[in-house]
Design brief:
Chain A: Pathway: Purine metabolism; IMP biosynthesis via de novo pathway; 5-amino-1-(5-phospho-D-ribosyl)imidazole from N(2)-formyl-N(1)-(5-phospho-D-ribosyl)glycinamide: step 1/2. Chain A: This is Phosphoribosylformylglycinamidine synthase subunit PurQ. The complex is a heterodimer of chains A (about 220) and B (about 750). Chain A is an alpha/beta fold and about 220 residues long. Chain A contains 5 helices and 11 strands; from the N terminus they run E-H-E-E-H-E-H-E-E-E-E-H-E-E-E-H. Chain A has a single domain, classed as Class I glutamine amidotransferase (GATase) domain (Rossmann fold, 3-Layer(aba) Sandwich). In chain A, strand 3, helix 2 and strand 4 form a beta-alpha-beta unit. Chain A is globular and about 40 Å long. Chain B is built from 27 helices and 28 strands. The chains are: A alpha/beta (about 220), B alpha+beta (about 750). Chains A and B meet through helix 1 and strand 6 of A and helix 9 and helix 11 of B.
Chain lengths: ~220, ~750
């Protein structure tokens, strides 16, 4: 079974949910501890949501310097797929694996709501099973979710088709170009603010649309 | 370098019996001070005085409520006790929910700090209740917050409400706890005294239940979590045990008494405790809340079978030059106290190190029966712990029903002018502050974290799965209509119980336990004490009749400014069990073509109703009749026949009109209905109890009506779901868009 690492930092909250999503999609989640640098031979890594280190200094800033993150950076350099969800997205930006930054929501409040997202590219291991233009419904829940990048970076992201998810039917936080998630140059590292791991079961979420991200990954790795 | 004056030691106290002490400033009465001297056989040291003053404060000792709260114990039968694994007096009540699972839950108040500093007051309220749950050996799994504020459009509400909501979200979201329910109520009476109650639910395997007691001579006492500082000193004695006066603006003089929280430290503390419990490293545990170390040490020692020695020098501090009295009174947050066997201490400390949690051995369980605390090598506290923690003063406050109560009850709403246009009135009511959508508040809370939430606001009850394999879970609701309680405290308390019980039942869950947060005015006011006594009796008698026990709760007195008390507000929380949360009945009209059925009896009952309040500012008459037997029959029908029901919604504030509006808007489908009876106005706005709206597939309507008849529940078909409007025969058509605009715009317009 494909092994997918899920990192826990002090203050991480959605690691259990990410592990459940991996399991539900048919993979084997492997718990990774922030202070270890051993990736335990996993084929991909998820950096989950939460408030690592209490968002001290800046959200994701301290976690980005954890021993495990150096290993993630090294592995990403040679193509290991990485998914950063919410705080995970913030950590990947702080670690330099993704461009841009996440700022305070425009409305200045924490927002929890079921959000429509448009899939903008299927050229990543996390979105391969979708079609461009698909709309999925996934919860957003954050206070610092407003994606920002300078004009040159934004232009590049759009030109290189590196915006992966865009908010549809309303932008919950004022992020530029309605960007909900972006990817690295090679498309293997993806970060998004919404929480696909909370949309895997209609009993507990607004849809099962989130499963598609995890199934896509497992499909890509199986074929590799 | 800060130097501290030599401490007031026991030896010094014995040698200087006539030294004046500031006991009155610390909140103690003359006779209480005299009693302390009698207990100790000398004057208390500064540190002992501080301990007694905080522990004997109203908030900690329950001195005005104890004589009344005994009634809960007197009315709890063996049968009711059967499912209880821990009851009143423990950190939180614990209930057996089947399959080897135990659930602990409790609701507490943090009212006064939230008026002074809304964000931190509310945040630390969450922190405190979560630690109570943690101290039972449980993993906290959900929170819910009953909140009450002054009028929605009052300037001070604009100061308090957003801060409180941000504080609850800021702290609760950071702990990774889904917020699954609560209330937001606006009333003039809360203008200077907002109520911020916090409920937390925890789950554990039965065998993992931990109680707070020290036993085993030689066992070590370990303080872990945050450092101890100067914040919150006097929180219980100064803030929660006195009324606010008007001088100097909102509680200005009491600012340093508000505690300051750090949710990251608490999140790490939760994970650290879970690992300590899993490894079996804890004999007993207590959280540090109101009255800090004074409380934790005296309660742990009282509940054990030996004495205790504490070395105050070992307590890690975050402020220089703290005196023993200050260290003992500090209410610094995010701290726990564990009793650990000597052979487990190293492993305990190692787990704390892994989680970067400060942990220090500060004492041990001793022979004998005294709590002895040393500082700089000298004894500064030497007391019998029970006298601090449990044998505090017990007051028999005067009780007198005021004559004004008669006028209140006589002032019935029967002759209030009725609205000419019922359609317009429905819209107006739906947009009114107490009935409008609470999304502005609840969208600031994470409902998804941990992935086990099967229902959250605006559902009638929050539903959380406890066992991922079997689907076993719990449903919880908190309710109180304080206007009903003001009109008749005995019946009003029973109505609060009935509403919470009914809300749990609408999800299809079986109610099993009760918690309460009794928010009242000053106990020095005989009429308030009458309200309190009546409410306690009403609630206890109600629980006995329903066969479900109160497993724990909280009393908050002194909710008044000057001579004006809040309306008596006994918030009742009910917990229910679902064998499989997937079988819960969802809220609202979810499908087109379903048959809409009203369960229960509607009578002309407008006393204390939301309509009387909104349309006429009227409060008077009698509250709706209580019929707990009817509530029970209704609950059994819903639980037993839940497979038949495609949706449900309880009727409460705003009556049938509001239930119809919410069912359409929340479910997303319109409906065409005919009102019961021949008085449309009464049918729409009466607030008779024991009523629930349900939908069934049309081919199941017969079976549903038969099931209701068999269960002894009156049932009447009102109409059918479908379309994009709420169409009420003889009243008019309300397009969902128009209803939605009215219902959703009010709070955003007020609070931004």
């Amino acid at each position: 079974m494909t092994r997918v690492g899920v990192i826990t930092f002090p203050g991480t909250l959605d690691d259990g949910d990410a592990a459940r999503a991996v399991r539900r999609a048919g993979g084997e989640p492997v718990a990774l501890w922030h202070a270890d640098s051993d990736l335990q031979g996993v084929a991909a890594v998820i950096v989950p949501g939460g408030f690592s280190y209490g968002d001290y200094l800046r959200a994701g800033a301290i976690a980005s310097m954890a021993p495990i993150m150096q290993s993630v950076i090294d592995a990403a350099r040679v193509g290991m797929p990485v998914l950063g969800i919410c705080n995970g997205f913030q950590i990947l930006c702080e670690a330099g694996l993704l461009p841009g930054a996440l700022l305070r929501n425009a409305g200045l409040h924490f927002v929890c709501r079921d959000q429509r997202l448009r899939i903008e590219t299927t050229a990543t291991p996390w979105t391969r099973d979708f079609s461009v233009g698909d709309e999925i419904v996934v919860p957003v829940k954050n206070i610092d979710g407003r994606y920002h990048a300078d004009a040159a970076t934004l232009q590049r992201l759009e030109a290189e088709n590196r915006v992966v998810f865009r908010y549809a039917g309303g932008n919950p936080n004022g992020s530029l170009n309605d960007i909900a998630g972006v990817c690295s140059e090679d498309g293997r590292v993806v970060g998004l603010m919404p929480h696909p791991e909370h949309a895997i079961d209609e009993l507990t979420g607004p849809s099962t649309d989130g499963l598609g991200l995890f199934r896509s990954l497992l499909g890509v790795l199986a074929a590799a | 370098m800060t130097t501290v004056a030599p401490a007031d030691t026991v030896a010094n106290a014995a040698a200087t019996p006539d030294q004046p002490q500031p006991y009155r400033e610390l909140g103690l009465k003359d006779d209480e001070y005299a009693r302390i001297r009698e207990i100790l056989g000398r004057r208390p040291t500064d540190a002992e005085l501080a301990m007694y003053s905080v522990m004997w404060s109203e908030h900690c000792s329950y001195k005005s409520s104890k004589v009344h709260l005994r009634y809960f114990g007197e009315t709890t039968t063996e049968e009711m006790r059967a499912r209880m694994l821990a009851g009143i007096g423990e950190n939180a009540g614990v209930v057996d929910i089947g399959d080897g699972w135990a659930v602990t839950f409790k609701v507490e108040s943090h009212n006064h700090p939230s008026y002074v500093e809304p964000y931190q007051g509310a945040a630390t309220g969450i922190g405190g209740i979560v630690r109570d749950i943690l101290a039972m050996g449980a993993r906290p799994i959900a929170v819910a917050d009953p909140l009450r504020f002054g009028p929605a459009d009052a300037p001070d509400t604009r100061r308090v409400l957003p801060g409180v909501v941000a504080g609850i979200g800021g702290y609760g979201n950071s702990l990774g706890l889904p917020n699954i329910g609560g209330e937001v109520v606006f009333d003039r009476c809360y203008a200077g005294n907002p109520l911020v109650n916090a409920l937390c639910v925890g789950a554990m395997r039965k065998e993992d239940l931990h109680l707070a007691h020290a036993s085993g001579v030689g066992n070590k006492i370990i303080l872990f979590g945050a450092r101890t500082g100067l914040d919150g000193i006097g929180g219980v004695s100064v803030l929660a045990s006195e009324t606010f006066s008007d001088e100097g603006g909102p509680g200005r003089k009491k600012l340093p008494s508000v505690q300051v929280g750090d949710p990251f430290t608490e999140k790490v503390l939760i994970e650290c405790c879970m690992e300590l419990y899993r490894a079996g490293l804890v004999v007993g545990i207590q959280d540090l809340g109101g009255a800090g170390l004074s409380c934790a040490t005296s309660e742990l020692a009282s509940a054990g079978d030996g004495g205790m020695h504490i070395n105050l020098d070992a307590v890690p501090l975050r402020a220089a030059g703290m005196t023993p009295a200050e260290i003992l009174s500090s209410e610094s947050q995010e701290r726990m106290c564990a009793v650990v066997r000597p052979e487990h201490v190293d492993e305990f400390l190692a787990v704390c190190r892994k989680w970067d949690t400060l942990a220090t051995v500060i004492g041990e369980v001793t022979d004998g029966d005294r709590l002895v605390i040393t500082w700089h090598g000298e004894v500064v506290v030497d007391v019998p712990p029970r006298t601090v923690a449990h044998d505090g003063p017990v007051y028999e406050r005067p009780i007198a029903r005021s004559a004004a109560q008669d006028e209140l009850v006589a002032n019935a709403p029967d002759d209030l002018p009725r609205p000419a246009d019922l359609r317009a009135e429905i819209l107006r009511m739906a947009a009114s502050p107490n009935l409008c959508s609470r999304a502005w508040v609840t969208d600031q809370y994470d409902r998804y974290v941990r992935g086990n939430t099967a229902a959250a606001q605006p559902a009638d009850a929050g539903v959380v799965r406890v066992d991922e394999e079997t689907g076993r879970g719990i449903a919880v609701s908190t309710d109180c209509n304080a206007r009903f309680v003001a009109l008749d405290p005995y019946a009003g308390a029973q109505l609060a119980l009935a509403e919470a019980y009914r809300n749990v039942a609408t999800s299809g869950a079986v109610p099993v336990a009760v918690t309460d947060c009794l928010n009242f005015g000053s106990p020095e006011d005989p009429h308030v004490m009458w309200q309190f006594q009546q409410a306690v009796h009403g609630l206890a008698d109600g629980c006995a009749q329903l066969g479900i026990p109160v497993t724990g709760g909280n009393v908050s007195f002194y909710n008044q400014t000057g001579a004006t008390a809040i309306l008596p507000t006994p918030v009742v929380g009910v917990l229910g069990v679902l064998d499989d949360v997937a079988t819960r009945i969802p809220i609202g009209f979810r499908r087109s073509g379903d048959t809409v059925i009203l369960l229960g009896e509607t009578r002309a009952e407008l006393g204390g109703s939301e309509w009387a309040h909104v349309a006429h500012g009227h409060l008077g008459g009698r509250p709706p009749a209580v019929d707990l037997a009817a509530e029970q029959r209704l609950a059994r029908l819903l639980a037993g026949a839940k497979a038949l029901f495609t949706g449900s919604h309880d009727l409460s504030d705003g009556g049938l009109a509001q239930a119809l509006v919410e069912s359409c808007l929340i479910g997303g489908t319109g409906a065409s209905v005919t009102l019961p009876g021949d008085d449309a106005f009464i049918a729409l706005f009466s607030e008779s109890a024991a009523r629930v709206l349900v939908t069934v597939a049309p081919e199941q309507a017969e079976a549903a009506l038969a099931a209701a008849a068999e269960a002894g529940v009156p049932a009447r078909v009102l109409g059918t779901t479908g379309g994009t409007a709420l169409v009420i025969d003889g009243v008019g058509e309300l397009p969902l868009d128009e209803l939605r605009t009215a219902w959703e715009s009010t709070l955003p317009a007020l609070f931004g």
